Amino acid sequence: MDQIIVTGNGPLSGQIPIAGAKNACLTLMPATLLSEEPLTLTNAPRLSDIRTMTTLLQSLGAEVQALQDGQVLAMSSHDLTSTRADYDIVRKMRASILVLGPLLARFGHAEVSLPGGCSIGARPVDLHLKAFEAMGAELDLRDGYVHAKAPAGGLQGGIVKFPFVSVGATENALMAATLAKGTTVLKNAAREPEIVDLAQCLRKMGAQIDGEGTSEITIQGVDRLGGATHRVVTDRIELGTYMLAPAICGGEVECLGGRIDLVAAFCEKLDAAGISVEETPSGLKVARKNRRVSAVDVTTEPFPGFPTDLQAQMMALLCTAEGTSVLEEKIFENRFMHAPELARMGAKIEVHGGTAKVTGVEKLRGAPVMATDLRASVSLILAGLAAEGDTIVSRVYHLDRGYEHVVRKLSGVGAKIERVKEQ
Ligand code: UD1
């Protein structure tokens, strides 16, 4: 297994290109199942999660070709051979559940393995299933699989009121509703940029959708969808992560492709901490104003609030702030596993349930640490940039799920970082 070694070496400067969004791509790829005509995605990120989704779609009989070094995904679901998503693939990635809506809508039935637990909490899929029930589907949970069946004439439009906001359930319901009979209204829908991106792509395929980006989305079902070519939106989480690099160890970095509207709540917190963010013609330029950042309190919320997927990285920054910050995690239980690892580097963090109190220290110290999940792993790399000495991060396969070329991108702005085989 590989390790990443980071040696804190002072201010960074230069540019970092930001990739297409993993989470958008993971919902745009299953959209190919809705149509027998080709769907081509450009600006796709090169990540192991994308390869897992490729394997899943191929197991259903879809053609998926990765072109231009993986940045273009040419897909066709003309000749699907299966409507069953097997446990062996689904267990690797929760987002696999996103094939259920498209398969059910186009073929009237589908069997998808239940994703099971994961390291950041229970993460059930009940909201996805309730949405399909509201569209007339019959669901049966047997042998670890969801067996879903649409009524004889296909899924029916209906009112789906989510009891709380779920990104995945909104995406799954949105895809299914495009081919349902009549009108579907999704209430308390997620408003994330990835949902807007999905709706825009579906519209290019011929879907009739209104209201994406608000909490009420209305979909008028159509008989069939066609093909399309679509550019995946910028990854706002990768963007926020690299914006934190100069914030944590000084310097000035321009994140190419960055847009304020994707990370507005995050930028407000950076501003309060003493980090300047400036829009440029090609992205966002980030610089630290003072020797140390100031403490800020952060609460994670659905979009447009502060994203849970940037909480671990923000915590790394606040570990070196002047004063005490309180971080409240409202989306996932058990999402502070990076805290004990950061503590190994000298951070002062007290966790009580969903709240972490972080008292900034003058300097972190490098240490051997372990990545526990995707965002936690990159928070340790950020902390390593600001630490004295070497930080050795193991279990970096978590990182490969969501960050392409992390070593190349950070060394390109002057960081001392390398990937080695574990001794
Ligand atoms: C997506 C993102 C993930 C991000 C999360 C929240 C993808 C592939 N992943 O995950 O990176 O952290 O949004 O922004 O896009 N819940 C239920 N029942 C359900 C569905 C969700 O109880 O049926 C709960 C979850 O356990 C969680 C909360 O709802 O506590 C929000 O989860 P959700 O928005 O669905 O996250 P994902 O779509 O899985």
List keywords for this structure.
binds uridine-diphosphate-N-acetylglucosamine, 4-stranded mixed β-sheet, UDP-n-acetylglucosamine1-carboxyvinyl-transferase, Chain, 423 residues, single chain, elongated
Any idea how many domains? 2
Distance between the termini: 9 Å
Helical coverage, percent range = 25-40%
Kindly name the structural category: alpha/beta
* Distinct helical segment count: 14
Q: What sort of overall outline do the alpha carbons produce when their principal axes are compared?
A: elongated
How many E strands?
26
CATH superfamily of the largest domain: Enolpyruvate transferase domain
Distinct small molecules bound, one entry per kind: uridine-diphosphate-N-acetylglucosamine
The Cα radius of gyration reads: 22 Å
- The first-level CATH class of the largest domain is given as Alpha Beta
| Averaged pLDDT | 95
Give the SSE map.
Layout: E1 2-7, E2 12-17, H1 22-28, E3 39-42, H2 48-59, E4 63-67, E5 72-76, E6 84-85, H3 87-90, H4 100-107, E7 109-113, H5 126-134, E8 138-142, E9 145-149, E10 159-161, H6 167-177, E11 183-187, H7 193-204, E12 208-210, E13 216-220, E14 228-231, H8 236-249, E15 251-256, H9 264-273, E16 275-280, E17 283-288, E18 298-299, H10 311-318, E19 324-328, H11 338-343, E20 348-352, E21 355-359, E22 364-365, E23 368-370, H12 374-385, E24 387-388, E25 390-394, H13 397-400, H14 406-411, E26 416-421
Parallel strand pairs: 2-15, 3-14, 6-7, 10-11, 18-19, 22-24, 23-25
Antiparallel strand pairs: 1-25, 1-26, 3-5, 4-5, 7-9, 8-9, 11-13, 12-13, 15-17, 16-17, 19-21, 20-21
Helix pairs in contact: 1-7, 4-6, 5-6, 6-7, 8-10, 8-12, 10-12
